[in-house]
Amino acid sequence: MRTDFHHILVQQEERVVTITMNRPEVLNAFNDLMLEELTLALEEAAREESVRCVVVTGAGRAFGAGQDLTNFVAPQKTADDGETAKISVHLEKYHRVVQLMRNMPKPVIAAVRGVAAGISCNIALACDIRIAADNARFIEAFARIGLIPDGGGGYLLPRLIGLGRALDMSLLTDEVSGPEAERIGLVTKCVPVAEFEGAVAALAKRLADGPTRSYGLIKELLYKSMDLSFQESLALEGQLQDSARATADHKEGVNAFLQKRPARYTGK
To answer: Which of 10, 34, 157, 259 has its CA 20 to 30 A from that of 45?
Structure first.
């Protein structure tokens, strides 16, 4: 994995790669370069066969404070026709990031410590599993500056916690603590700050040691089924189960079960 970035850190330990957003002086607020580098790192993690689990986190005391708003008050770039470029063009870059995580054929964990606000919050929501420290704070802060949730937040948030709570978070922009996030299903698990790094490492290792191909097919089935009819989901299930049954990890899992021993998955 490439490591020569300016605003992110990339560290691989065995089968786990950790991508750390690294602008702690501004609580890891996104500028264009950090967004570009995060995209490149996710693309490489998706391709790299030695990577079987990805952790996305933030340096210092925050996961991320959202978009760096100094970009909004700076002179806006203009499109080819001379008009001010639309924000939707910029959002396509964030859409690339959340789609990369959703489509990645291996598990992606958001490890959230401190604030996760705005687009940073929704990037965490786009990960497959979220683990939070008990000092975490999730804030759909967009309405505070007269905007709407972006980065897929309008799709992801109500599907995770229901429409009513999603409206509460988006309209009122009140923060949701780590323990409350666990209670309402926004995160998988909330742990004390002192135990956070160990809990993240243990979860990542558990997933990295698992049947990676199966995990990728599970992601495909569940995410696609959210927008399919029951019959369409059943058809997709059959197709993907055929693929899963042909993997080496399926054969290993069956043999391990019959031989009453732990499975040794290779991710193939």
So the answer is: 157
How far from chain centre, in Å, is Cα 265? Answer: 24
- Count of CB atoms situated within 10 Å of the CB of 259: 9
The rounded distance, in Å, linking the Cα atoms of 143 and 162 is 19
* Angle between the N-to-C axes of helices 212-225 and 248-258, in degrees from 0 to 180, rounded to the nearest 10: 110
| CATH H-level superfamily of 8-208 | 2-enoyl-CoA Hydratase; Chain A, domain 1 (3.90.226.10)
Q: Which residues of the chain have pLDDT under 70?
A: 71-85
Please provide the average confidence, as pLDDT, over all residues in the chain: 94
pLDDT given at position 82: 47
The one-letter amino acid at 123: I
Calpha distance 139→120 (Å, rounded): 9
Sign of CA dihedral 157, 163, 169, 172: positive
pTM of the model: 0.92
In this prediction, residue 77 carries a pLDDT of 53
